[in-house]
Amino acid sequence: MKKFTAIAVIAAVPLVMASCAGMTNQESRTKEGVIVGAGLGAILGQAIGGDTEGTLIGAGLGAAIGGVAGNQIGAYMDRQEQALRSAVATSEAASIQRSQNVLTATFKANTFFDFDSSTLKPGAYSELDRVAKVLRDFPQTRIRVEGHTDSKGTDQYNMLLSQRRAQAVTDALVQRGVDPMRMESIGFGESQPVSSNDGDNRRVNIVIIPVQS
After folding, report:
1. pLDDT above 70 covers what percent of the chain?
2. What pLDDT digit, counting tens, does each position of 66-112 carry?
3. Is the pLDDT of residue 13 over 80?
4. In terms of CATH, what superfamily is 88-210?
5. Are 27 and 100 in contact (CB under 8 A)?
6. What ranges do the domains of the chain cover?
């Protein structure tokens, strides 16, 4: 019974997480925080108390703490999203998407690079100046720079090109004061198309992920 209670709390997490769909951002992030906190609290309560009562007390405390943490992270990302959208508001090359508390800034590759090149074009620097300021202002995030290509050329060549482009953007952001310890770069080549249009598939994503302590 002791183990069953802890397992039941944890097993309920994916089911209740699915029920967050359709909620407002604030409701969703609060519920997610509550659920994750409850699961971790249940494990801790079982470990400390060794009984069902300890498990339930741990779950309750974890839920309360998790709800607060979920709201704090969500509010932080709300502010960062607003700042990022303002920073690129006049750009014709950028778009911003949000999935839960993860932000993705997508830039058309032809704004950053010439054909078959991983050298940043002069026009790329003004875009990166604005993004770098937002990243510096909101340091409690991790950053993943992703390179993507179209399907022209071989898979291997496109993978290497996308990696070089992602690294070029990462290096430019570091030169603009973004902490390199927060960053990683990765190339996906042609493996993640988003459209039948080659121009849409040639892109660089800057993915911003909150640090959850």
Report:
1. 67
2. 445 668 898 999 999 999 999 999 998 899 999 999 999 999 999 99
3. no
4. OmpA-like domain (3.30.1330.60)
5. no
6. 2-79, 88-210
